[in-house]
Amino acid sequence: MTDMQTRQAWPDDASAVAGVYVRSWQAAFAGLVPQPYLDAMDPSREESEWKTRIAETRWPLSGVLVAETEAGIVGFAGFGPSQETPAVAEIGTLYAMPEVWGTGIGKHLMLAMLPTLRQAEYTQATLWVLEDNRRARRFYEAAGWRADGTAVKDTTGGASLNKLRYRRPLG
């Protein structure tokens, strides 16, 4: 993708990040998460949480990285220490507007995030992905991530969903 840059997010980016989050969820999880849950998502209700998350950044240990084009913020990735093992980074979010899927935005965000994780002296990173989200699993596997055998149940929107943990060395 041309004319795209990544940068650390600032609290003023919260509205745009919330918009990407909601649009991405509504497209990516259609058929996986109950539709009434997706239909009820609203960027204006998500904005304050994103403003808080971004404001609480402890760069490079945790933060949000945005992908920006002439159209504005089109994707973002959030990371921080794993709750289970603080010495391991956890990618908590990696989302892009559906209109830019397949253009390299996600790959670019991932590649931009990895040096930051290494700078924070993380040696490994994990992330969680819905077992039935084949598109996301292919994306992560193409980027060197592998399922590590850990799975949990998630009940987002009242549905029982399986989430798989993926892991990648950072060295």
UniProtKB/TrEMBL annotation:
<dbReference type="Pfam" id="PF00583">
    <property type="entry name" value="Acetyltransf_1"/>
</dbReference>
<dbReference type="InterPro" id="IPR050832">
    <property type="entry name" value="Bact_Acetyltransf"/>
</dbReference>
<dbReference type="InterPro" id="IPR000182">
    <property type="entry name" value="GNAT_dom"/>
</dbReference>
<keyword id="KW-0808">Transferase</keyword>
<feature type="domain" description="N-acetyltransferase">
    <location>
        <begin position="4"/>
        <end position="171"/>
    </location>
</feature>
<protein>
    <submittedName>
        <fullName>N-acetyltransferase</fullName>
    </submittedName>
</protein>
<keyword id="KW-0012">Acyltransferase</keyword>
<dbReference type="GO" id="GO:0016747">
    <property type="term" value="F:acyltransferase activity, transferring groups other than amino-acyl groups"/>
</dbReference>
<dbReference type="InterPro" id="IPR016181">
    <property type="entry name" value="Acyl_CoA_acyltransferase"/>
</dbReference>
